[in-house]
Inverse folding.
């Protein structure tokens, strides 16, 4: 491969630089002299921050970034992690409302499980910002901050096709594409996470034409999101399903060329299953192409070593900044600015949203995107640990 950034990601990179330069402008105020300028000053207000779990690296980072951003503006942050237990998250939010927080930023475990809490927040006149995972089945959601999740799926699918040699470095049909049909298997996220469907739909939007013309095939026949879903995004569940697929579909000598994986923990579970089955230690010696998402340090290290093919980078520093700006804007008595007012219907209302761009990470651009931006250090990439 050549040392270059992917052509299709140019717009996203520009958008990220622009958002960084304007300090998160778009989803709220810029934190200037009028920030927190309502009836109370920021130092007299508390924002409740509900995160789903501490077992997933990205949520720990998100929580820390949101907390830091709120405290920089003078707010008190009540940050709680629910350890992927729905009743715990419900109780945590109930307690925040009882303690009269001034705003809520919620990354849900199950977007449909917090209806009563959202009703209570509305009754208490507490603005609710849905963070990355859409809160559903309630009109009492004031704003949504997330990434372009359909584009995440599209990027994952294009990364898979690029790794398979079907597409070239400009994501155009490769002149030297393999002539034989290539076998892939498909994984999806947790069905209680609304984003999982956007990821899946984006990926299938790209992949279905290649399945129809037999450029690629799914020998297991498991081509619906229900068949491919991975409850709670668990690595062990993905590894077990991959092991079962290898036994049921590939034990007769059929070759597996690639796997669409929607998140890095799933990717690592899948890779463990593939390695244990003797399919190679690295891509160079035959390991199937495996995609990912979230640019977790362990997976970035695998990408640098030529084991995992790709991941999708969602700069959670920018996401946290947009959530903080939205909360600050609400608490200043104003409305945050959305850049999408059509896409996110939660079943009760279309929620005004602020969408951030994403970037594809490959072996030849991880340094430029992740190390040069100081998201990670080279030492962290080498060790696979923060």
């Amino acid at each position: 491969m050549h040392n270059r950034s992917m052509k299709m990601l140019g717009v996203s990179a520009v958008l990220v630089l622009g958002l960084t330069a304007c300090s998160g402008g778009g989803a709220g105020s810029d934190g200037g002299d009028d920030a927190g300028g309502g009836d109370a000053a920021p130092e007299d207000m508390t924002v409740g921050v509900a995160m789903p779990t501490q077992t997933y690296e990205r949520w720990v980072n998100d929580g820390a970034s949101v907390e830091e951003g709120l405290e920089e503006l003078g707010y008190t942050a009540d940050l709680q992690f629910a350890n992927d237990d729905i009743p715990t998250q419900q109780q945590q939010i109930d307690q925040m409302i009882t303690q009269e927080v001034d705003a809520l930023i919620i990354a849900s475990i199950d977007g449909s499980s917090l209806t009563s809490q959202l009703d209570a927040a509305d009754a208490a006149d507490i603005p609710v910002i849905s963070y990355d995972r859409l809160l559903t089945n309630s009109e009492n959601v004031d704003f949504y901050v997330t990434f372009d999740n359909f584009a995440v799926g599209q990027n994952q699918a294009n990364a898979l096709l690029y790794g398979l040699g079907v597409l070239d470095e400009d994501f155009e049909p490769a002149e030297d594409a393999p002539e034989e049909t290539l076998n892939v298997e498909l994984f999806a996220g947790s069905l209680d996470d609304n984003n999982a469907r956007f990821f899946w739909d984006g990926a299938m939007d790209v992949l279905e034409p290649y399945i129809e013309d037999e450029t690629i095939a799914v020998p297991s026949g498991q081509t619906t999101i229900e068949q491919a879903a991975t409850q709670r995004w668990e690595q062990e569940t993905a590894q077990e399903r991959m092991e079962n697929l290898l036994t049921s579909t590939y034990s007769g000598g059929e070759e597996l060329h690639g796997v669409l994986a929607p998140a890095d923990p799933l990717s690592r579970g899948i890779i463990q299953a593939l390695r244990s089955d003797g399919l190679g230690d690295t891509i160079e010696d035959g390991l199937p192409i495996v995609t990912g998402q979230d640019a977790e340090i362990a997976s970035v290290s695998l990408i640098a070593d030529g084991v995992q093919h790709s991941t999708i980078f969602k700069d959670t520093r920018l996401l946290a900044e947009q959530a903080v700006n939205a909360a600050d804007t609400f608490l200043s008595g104003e409305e945050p600015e959305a850049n999408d007012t059509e896409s996110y219907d939660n079943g009760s209302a279309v929620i005004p949203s602020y969408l951030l761009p994403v970037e594809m990470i490959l072996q030849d651009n991880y340094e430029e995107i992740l190390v040069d931006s100081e998201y990670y250090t080279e030492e962290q990439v080498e060790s696979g640990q923060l």
Summary: Confidence is low (pLDDT under 50) at residues 1-25, 27-37. The chain is about 40% helix and 10% strand.
